[in-house]
Amino acid sequence: MKTFSPTPEHIEHQWYVVDGNGQVLGRLAAQIAHRLRGKHKVEFAPHMDNGDFIVVVNCDKIRVTGTKPEKKKYYRHSGYVGGLRETSLARMMETKPADVLMIAVRGMLPKNRLGRAMLKKLKVYAGPEHPHAAQAPKPLTLPY
């Protein structure tokens, strides 16, 4: 019996919509990364992008536990001397709530061009509306 190796003809990408209302940030990000990678499918191969498209709505209502809103920091650097900037999680949730989930999921995907391709299949929106109705995404309830 030969080992099955999927080819691009075997891959079928589904569209799912996830409601982030009341979800915990890390748990939601872990399950989304699992789906984006395609590990829930029987024909999973680590060298192929066979995951699904995930649309997350209401990401501004994602919650975190403990003292993370004040103590968790996000850093970015302008490239100039002394250009390190720091932002707290509470400030990021006020200004750019979609970026918080994107950064969390990005850290759970492979750090190569395959991981960057997987991240492009994640669509995150702060409100309850999304422009992907034409793809007919199915609602996805996550186990935890």
Number of contiguous helices:
5
* Secondary-structure element string: EHEHEEHHHEE
What is the count of β-strands? 6
Low-confidence stretches: none
Strand order of the largest sheet: 5-2-1-6
> CATH superfamily name of the domain at 15-64 and 95-139?
Ribosomal protein L13
Report the biggest beta sheet as strand number plus sense, adding barrel if it closes: 4 strands, parallel
- What is the third-level CATH name, the topology of the domain at 15-64 and 95-139? Ribosomal Protein L13p, Chain: A
Structural class determined from secondary elements: alpha/beta
Overall mean confidence score, pLDDT: 95
CATH class of the domain at 15-64 and 95-139: Alpha Beta
Percent strand: 15-25%
Please give the share of residues in helix: 25-40%
Protein architecture, described:
The chain has five helices and six strands; from the N terminus they run βαβαββαααββ. It is an alpha/beta fold. The protein has a domain at 15-64 and 95-139: Alpha-Beta Complex (Ribosomal Protein L13p, Chain: A), CATH 3.90.1180. The protein has a four-stranded parallel beta sheet, covered by helices on one side. Strand 1, helix 1 and strand 2 form a beta-alpha-beta unit. The radius of gyration is 17 Å and the shape is globular. The model has no long low-confidence stretch (mean pLDDT 95).
